[in-house]
Automatic annotation (TrEMBL):
Gene3D superfamilies: 2.70.98.70, Chondroitin AC/alginate lyase. The lineage of its organism: Bacteria, Pseudomonadati, Bacteroidota, Sphingobacteriia, Sphingobacteriales. It comes from the Bacteria. It is found in: Cell envelope. It comes from Sphingobacterium oryzagri. Residues 420-573 form the Heparinase II/III-like C-terminal domain. SUPFAM superfamilies: Chondroitin AC/alginate lyase (SSF48230). This is Heparinase II/III family protein. PROSITE patterns: PROKAR_LIPOPROTEIN.
Amino acid sequence: MDRLMIGFHQFLFGCVRTIRTIVNKQCSCLFIIFLLCLPAVYAQGVLSQKIGGAFSGFSIAHIKAWRAESKAHWEMLIKNLSAEQQAQFITAAEKANVFVWPPLLAGVYLEFQSQGNRTHYERLMDERRKALCQLVLGELVERKGRFLPQIVNGLWLTLEESSWVSPAHIVSQRSGAGLPDPNDRYIDLVAARTAADLSFIYLLLKADLDRTSPHIAVKLKKELNSRIIRPYLEDSYWWMSFDTDFINNWNIWINTNVLKTILLVEDDEQQLHAVLAKLLRSADRFIDSYPEDGAIDEGASYWSHAGGELGQLLSWLAAASSERLSFADQKKIQNIGRYILHTHIDGQVFVNFADASHRQVAPAAKIWSYGLLFDDSRMKNFAAQMYALDRNGFNGNSIHTFFMYLPYLDELSTWKVDKTPEPSFFYESLGLAVIRADHNGKGMVFAGIGSHNGVSHNHNDVGSFMLYHDGLPVLIDVGVATYNKQTFSASRYSLWHTQSQWHNLPVINGVGQRDGKQFRATDVQYRVDQDKEFFSLDISKAYPDSAKVKRWQRSFEIDKDKKKIDVVEDFELDAWLKPSELVFISQIRPRVEQGFLVYPLPNEQTMYLRFDRKKVRISIVEKNLADERLRQQWGDQLYRTSVELLGTNKKEKLSYTIQIN
């Protein structure tokens, strides 16, 4: 976000001045103590170590200058959009100008509590947000006032909503699920995202809104203060990560949107300082929670809301310091950014596990931001590759997303993309191996996951693997169905797609894996030997005691030249209770031929799974998909192949081969 921000000088001096002002005004002792304690709390964090020197001299005068320059810069970029791009935004605004705003009824909000349906209310709310954004961007392009009356309608309705919080997230209020409690303020992902969009509207269209009525902008700012800024400062939410070791994408996603909000609208210097200080402390908790290799346990499709949002937060902070604040020496943060690059298979296909989906277009602007932060040409190249796949990332459906892309359009459009794939990569902290035998997206890619069954958005998938060929998933991870009341509840693991029995894993003595950090892989190893790569792990500790398993070592030897994987399941049981089975999930319907499992691939090649037929019994079950999210990912059916191990041996070493030709 170079050239977007100026100002933020002498941060420490400004904090001292703020403290002195508060003391003189006899403000809250608790607030004074919080500010005085900042050096202690910042002692371990990356942001705390860097912010002080870079932000020496911060004041509202500087932030107002930044806003004026940013506004002028953005307006210039909009003016310089191509005629075709401008026409697209105006056409979308014209459609939104006759949009009938749907009511957001209490009964629809309550559907999550009564039926577990979160999508009905969210869909209606998203329709409102989308129409408002389209109108605003159309007005910013055209500047004729044609869309202002409808903008006022949409803005007023948004400000009149009882809550910006999703019905699925209001469960965090003290009274639990139901309607929002007006005496219990909460900030969730949706509320923070709404606030960021509204903050852009306030900065860019305040003068235009004032011509309709000066009370609109006053109300907008008041609602941002009462729903976002004051609650953020005065309350402590779980996602701030001050009192818990459970830290996920909520932390950085919300913090980034709150940062945008205060930078764009906050005029109270004391409040701006206080929110910024708390925000940096919370964001440090997010950064500190990551391993040095940057692995994201939520998976690649969550990168955009985790590592990708971290890049946005750092970009705003760097620009706010007039680029004097640099993170170029922070290898861990660069590794967090590069995770999305290392987990890319081809096109829109990514390695997926847990709740991640296998198909996405990673947000090009967020990837490009990392390229700028670290002068990383591979990240810039990958950003341009994603942008070439789908330019809808730059659209009128989200104002803050629009302005995230706006400064980088020329570079993203003109970069000469190099599709040379990344080399194989192993994330030791996550036990994730991505082993490539491909060339420019063609060939075989193996991905195996170790870790434990207590990661964020967990599925019971320790030791599972995925196999891709020519960019297409062959042996797959199903991913996640449409979120509902059950998805994040005590009954999460009654959902079929979260269970180990629906992953490429053994079912041992008829027993699947259990959830929790204690259910984990051990002895995870990865090594390279000339043209072969090896991945192995013991998954016995991922199963409960009822599985009666002492050891289950899965070993994969990947011969990249021969497109072959030799697999060994080396196990020992405490007792044989019933036949164990190996499970393989695919989108492709396999068939059994002479003891082989045969998978006809779309590229006229074939994948074979070869077993010793005397040792196994094979059966195939078709799974009809009713969930719309899964149908969009995989089509109408998936196939679960069970390879039952014959015999009653407690100790066995079963070998089989996967080969494509």
